[in-house]
From TrEMBL:
Residue ranges occupied by any EF-hand domain in the UniProt entry: 138-173
All copies of domain PH, residue ranges: 21-128
SMART domains, per database record: C2, EFh, PH, PLCXc, PLCYc
Designated name of the protein: Phosphoinositide phospholipase C
GO biological process: intracellular signal transduction; lipid catabolic process
Length: 772
């Protein structure tokens, strides 16, 4: 109670009628199937972080889940379950709660449209409020929540036994003697329990950060505080920023919490810590957070965030296909999705992985889901000020174009229906003819294609046909070399080449992404138009990147290339995307459903520039005069040798890995990786800290030599050390080296699936300087 007023995560919503609506709760119908539709009472618990609902099971009469687990709340029959098990007439009564990770979504139905809207609005408001908290506030709330859990009898006091339980909850193992020592120091009333100001004293002792004291003490030269001049000295010498006195004044005005200090234009230690926990103190350069790159270059001058077999939720052989997989990929700002199209029952084309037991989803339902979510933005930059939440918020999608990569196995009649659905559902957003009034000679830009869908697939003729009135081409056969054939060959040693009849209606809406067979770089240069692109399975692409890197780079200066995983990756594993980016490949398609290092690198590559799914390639990958080869590194504009100094100082509130084991405490270590051209790839790690995930301190320094900084990614990995088995991942974070800020910075941490760990982070010191 002594802390609740100061650290309540939804204090800003105090008295809000939507919050009170959730606290009061109400009856909803939970829907699992056409025959399982049961009333349940739901309400938000007093901690304003946990949703409680009744259960009819004898052993578990009630259940809860935390709001932190929610990815999104969607009004209407948005889930496949609601579409399947409810009638269209109850559309406005339904809503779904979608969770992070693999947890199944919760489908609900209210008594009225007004009530359903109220639930969705109220949940969205509380979720947005929580996500908009600063990292420091999230950290404070996490600690207070652990204190509440440790207070077993809910008397707002803390006994020695409860204090030990609390320390284990926050991932700290201390011996009994030390725990008693802390307890006695705080128990000034000698009552054998901590309460009110004693708990506040214990909290202050616990969250005290000695490393911040040292840094602040070094620069606070004005009566124990930082003057604007002192702060400017810190910004110039430690953070290596091009700062001015005006910048220092602005930071004091923005982050100082003490009004008297603010009036004196000074920064207290609390204000300094606030600065370090926000955008300006983040490892990610805040200037790179919004769209900051030139978006008027031709489309092929960008890396494009791309998904492989987007419809799959799990493996490639017997896993489910779902519209939800498309929604999740698009919500991660994926800008190229794949649709494997086959003849379905009742004349309706379906999407699934051919020659396998994966389930099928209707083509028209997928197109509708893509239309609904491709350019959906539910929050604005201003609504998400914190550097963590704003870059990984569930509903952050992009306004830049989406490419629909069609793998077509349908008969003519179902192809015509595919074309009909694409045209009727996507409407004016579908690019159905070249831009301009003359035959194009180059790609349009992402800026020119905002809000547009591009179809990638086979085409019966050239784009010249749009400007040739005598063109009368009809349905015809085309060669179809695709992933299904590769997969079939891998499994059955079948024939790769096949011919399919291509419907003119489908052919006509393929504009800037015409699929063609690759017959060599010289052949492509001499015979292919700029809009004719090839897909490469990973083995072919990696071989070309090894043996013909410069030619591959030149090919990608004029055309688009798509890379996809080998058919042998039946478990939906991924290949390393970095070597493909090194040779300028734009559409490097990965299995988005599989959490892995490769997806972490993809998330890091597309983190800057508004997380919009497009990253402008370096100039040396766009200029035809370039002779760049990532494997040999001859002299050229790409060679900018840098020394990257990294000191891993400390960690904060690292989560427990094995939450089932009450006494399990992590032994954390940090690995710093650089991924780029072969000469730059390196990895170094700290020692591990015994039994402390709450505030481990390493103070270990590393040095990396970087040759091509514009292609380098930096990845921080925190693991739980285990001497007898493989280390467990605690958290990670990845970003381009060119977006790293120098100086003392906080690094957020993400789960394996890429979700933010609200309270956790690293504190590091970074310095990127010209190599001697």
């Amino acid at each position: 109670l002594a802390l609740k007023g100061k650290y309540d995560p939804i204090k800003s919503l105090e008295g809000d009628e939507d919050l009170q609506f959730l606290l009061d709760g109400g009856n909803l119908v939970k829907i699992r199937s056409s025959s399982w539709k049961k009333p349940r009472f739901y309400r938000l618990q007093d901690d304003c972080k946990t949703l409680w609902h009744e259960s009819k099971k004898t052993l578990r009469p009630s259940r809860t889940f935390t709001l932190d687990d929610i990815e999104s709340v969607r009004k209407g029959r948005q889930s496949e379950g609601l579409k399947k098990h409810t009638d269209a007439s109850v559309e406005e009564l339904c809503f779904s709660i979608f969770f992070k990770g693999s947890k199944k979504n919760l489908d609900l139905m209210a008594a009225s449209d007004v009530e359903a809207t109220r639930w969705v609005k109220a949940l969205d408001k509380v979720l947005n409020n929580m996500r908009n908290l600063s990292h420091q506030k999230k950290s404070e709330h996490w600690i207070i929540n652990c204190m509440r859990k440790a207070d077993k009898n809910a008397d707002n006091k803390m006994t020695l036994k409860e204090l030990k339980h609390f320390l284990r909850q926050i991932n700290v193992e201390v011996d009994d003697t030390y725990a008693e020592e802390i307890f006695k120091k705080c128990d000034t009333s000698n009552s054998d329990s901590l309460e009110d100001s004693e708990i506040k004293h214990f909290y202050d002792m616990l969250t005290h950060r000695e490393e911040i004291d040292v840094i602040y003490g070094q620069y606070s030269k004005t009566e124990g505080q930082m003057s604007a001049s002192d702060l400017l000295n810190f910004l110039l010498n430690e953070q290596r920023e091009q700062a001015t006195p005006e910048d220092a004044y602005k930071l004091i005005e923005k982050y100082e919490v003490d009004e008297i200090a603010k009036q004196k234009k000074r920064m207290t230690k609390d204000g300094f810590l606030m600065y370090l926990h926000h955008d300006d103190g983040s490892i990610l350069n805040p200037a790179h957070k919004p769209v900051y790159q030139d978006m008027s270059q031709p489309l092929n001058h960008y890396y494009i965030s791309s998904s492989h077999n987007t419809y799959l939720m799990e493996d490639q052989v017997k896993g489910p296909s779902s519209t939800e997989a498309y929604i999740r990929a698009l919500m991660k700002s994926c800008r190229c999705v794949e649709l494997d199209c086959w003849d379905g029952d009742n004349g309706e084309p379906v999407i699934y992985h051919g020659y396998t037991m994966t389930s099928k989803v209707l083509f028209r339902e997928v197109i509708q889901a893509i239309k609904d979510y491709a350019f959906k933005v539910s929050v604005t930059e201003e609504e998400t000020p914190d550097f963590i939440s704003s870059m990984f918020f569930s509903f952050q999608t992009s306004e830049y174009p989406v490419i629909l990569s069609l793998e077509n196995h349908c008969t003519l009649e179902q192809q015509k229906l595919m074309a009909h659905y694409l045209i009727s559902i996507l409407g004016e957003a579908l690019l159905s003819k070249p831009l301009g009034y003359t035959i194009p000679t180059n790609f349009p830009s992402p800026e020119e294609l905002k809000g547009k869908f591009l179809i990638k697939g086979k085409r019966l003729n050239k784009l010249d046909a749009f400007f040739n009135k005598n063109n009368t081409i009809e349905d015809d056969s085309v060669s179809e070399e695709d992933e299904a054939a590769d997969f079939k060959e891998n499994k059955q040693n079948g024939q790769k080449k096949s011919k399919i009849k291509l419907a003119k209606q489908l052919s006509d809406i393929v504009i800037y992404c015409k699929s063609v067979h690759f017959s060599g770089f010289e052949h492509a240069r001499d015979n292919q138009d700029f809009y004719e692109m090839s897909s490469f399975k990973e083995s072919k692409a990696f071989n070309l990147a090894d043996t013909s890197a410069t030619a591959f780079c030149h090919h990608n200066m004029d055309k688009l290339s798509r890379i996809y995983p080998a058919g042998s990756r039946t478990n939906s594993s991924n290949y390393n995307p970095v070597p493909m980016w090194n040779v300028g490949c734009q559409i490097v398609a990965l299995n988005f459903q599989t959490p892995s290092k490769e997806m972490h690198l993809n998330q890091g590559r597309f983190l800057p520039n508004g997380f919009c799914g497009y990253i402008l390639k370096p100039e040396f990958q766009r200029s035809l005069s370039s002779q760049f080869n990532p494997n040999t590194l001859t002299k050229g504009p790409w060679l900018k040798r840098k020394t990257f100094h990294v000191m891993v100082v400390s960690g904060q509130q690292l989560p427990k890995i094995n939450k089932e084991k009450h006494k399990s405490i992590v032994d954390p270590l940090v690995r710093v990786e650089v991924c780029g051209v072969p000469a730059d790839n390196a990895s170094k790690e700290t020692h591990y800290i015994d039994n402390n995930g709450f505030n481990p301190t390493w103070n270990e320094s590393f040095k990396f030599v970087i040759h091509v900084p514009e292609l380098a990614l930096v990845r921080f990995v925190v693991e739980d050390y285990d001497s007898t088995s493989q280390n467990d991942l605690i958290g990670h974070y990845c970003l381009p080296l060119t977006s790293v800020q120098n100086g003392y910075r906080h690094v957020p941490l993400l789960t394996k699936r890429g979700d933010v760990i609200c309270s956790a982070g690293l504190f590091v010191h970074l310095m990127l300087i010209d190599a001697k």
